[in-house]
Amino acid sequence: MTNYIPTIGIEVHVELKTKTKIFSPSVNGYGEMANSLTNVIDLGYPGTLPTLNKEVVNLAIKAATVLNCKIRREMHFDRKNYFYPDNSKNYQITQSRTPIGYDGYVEIDVNGTKKKIEILEMHIEEDTCKSTHRGNKTLLDFNRAGVPLIEIVTKPCIATAEEAKLYLEKLKELLFYSDISDCKMEEGSMRADANVSIRKNESDPFGTKCEIKNIGSISNVGVSIEKEIIRQAELLDKGETFQEQTRRYDDKLGNTVLMRVKETGNDYRYFPEPDIPYLYVTDEMIEEVKKTIPMLPDKRREVYVSKGVSEINANKLIQNRPLSDYFNTMLEDNTNFKIASNLLLGDISAYLNKNEKVITDTTLTKERFIELIKNMEDNTLTSKNLKDIIDKILESTDSIEKIIKDSGIENITDDSAIREVIVKIIEANPQGIADYKERPDRALKFFMGQVMKETKGSANPQMATEILKEELSNK
């Protein structure tokens, strides 16, 4: 198969996290009984008038800011005219000519190299109702009609399926951490379309574009793009041509499937929405919105690593928003952040997952957590001890000191006392010394077992290991 150069653009629809819909007072919700979150505006009754939700504009300004977009100061809404059962008004209210955000970018890391994925525009629009096809019937659920969306359109600057996935992961991270959307692709609150074309040389014009609609996961975006590149390449290798078309990704087939061929361009007859006045965005509005933007993931990574947290742990913390927010409450305190991240991602996460809780559901206040970190740092508590008392720490309001005392935990942290035990054990096991020179790891495990047995598990493992190595290397 001939090597071709892919050109990829991504369009993403994101549902905004507002209490009510974009043009009506209906609740913006998910998972409720069909057609229970609607009113006459959502249903498109003649004579009804839309009223723009101010919070939608604020969230769109916030999205434009975190996506490094320029913000348009004067704009209007447009009617996109088309007839389809999911669109009862026969038009959709959107922003065609004056999108609120434009000329932005999202920066991704491609194998250690930074690349800016350029954003052409970001506009506000309303969602349509949900269609469910059953045999030869179509059922309509208007709960989704009028849900506020932003559509984010990239320039055709994405070179590979991997770059497309990295872009979507970064986009999802930014919008989720900015409290703009919950970005739950499985619930449809973030939906991606990919535009794919290929050509032989950089100097050639772009090839014929195919659009892959409503891809349900980021991993499937990657798969569908790769499959589409192969499909187009096989056709061009045979000398065949094809028209622009719309396809969808089929999970069961693991491939793209034809939906319709675009024989002619769509004529949506856009014109300014006469029922909504022009929208003017002021400097004051932008500044007020900027104050609501929390610390974003890239900044969190930078701060965590500067505090001594490993890059792996920093990324794992950011993947868990409640843990990351909890961790942030301590950033101004003087504590051991390396131990803090290990605790949160280790025994504490194991407890939370087992009990289906988040960190704020527990009794672990910041003050008690800092006390726990101190006890781990000075070896008052060992990792083994922690596993035995983690439930009490996260369910009780007692101080960590009281929990340790009530549990009868008394660890030997005096290195001279541990050394005395180790010397005695080594002298009693001369064969172990010989084994250490042949198989150090195996012999070390044997000696550590003896130390723990002799001290009834009260010796600090890290300290004991260091002393053992020192004593054995001198034999």
SSE topology:
Blueprint: E1 5-15, H1 54-66, E2 70-71, E3 74-75, E4 78-81, E5 91-94, E6 101-110, E7 113-126, E8 130-134, E9 137-141, E10 148-154, H2 161-177, E11 190-199, E12 210-215, H3 218-237, E13 245-250, E14 255-261, E15 271-272, E16 279-280, H4 283-290, H5 297-306, H6 311-319, H7 321-328, H8 337-355, H9 366-377, H10 383-395, H11 400-406, H12 415-428, H13 430-438, H14 440-454, H15 461-473
Parallel strand pairs: 12-13
Antiparallel strand pairs: 1-10, 1-11, 2-6, 3-16, 4-5, 4-15, 6-7, 7-10, 8-9, 11-12, 13-14
How would you describe this protein?
The strands form four sheets. The chain has a nine-stranded mixed sheet with strand order 2-6-7-10-1-11-12-13-14. A three-stranded antiparallel sheet has the order 5-4-15, with no helix packed on it. The mean pLDDT is 92. The chain is α+β, with helices and mostly antiparallel strands and 475 residues long. The relative contact order is 0.10. The longest helix has 20 residues, at 218-237. It is built from 15 helices and 16 strands.
Keywords:
475 residues, alpha+beta, 9-stranded mixed β-sheet, 3-stranded antiparallel β-sheet, 16 strands, 39% helix
Oligomer: single chain
Overall form: elongated
- Counting H and I runs of at least 4 residues, what is the number of helices? 15
Strand count, sense and barrel status of the largest sheet are: 9 strands, mixed
Cα-to-Cα separation, first versus last residue = 65 Å
Count of distinct strands: 16
Radius of gyration: 30 Å
Beta content comes to 15-25%
Q: Spatial order of the strands in the main sheet?
A: 2-6-7-10-1-11-12-13-14
Secondary-structure-derived class: alpha+beta
User: Roughly what is the average pLDDT, rounded to an integer?
Assistant: 92
Spans of at least 5 consecutive residues whose pLDDT stays below 50 are none
> What's the helical proportion of residues?
25-40%
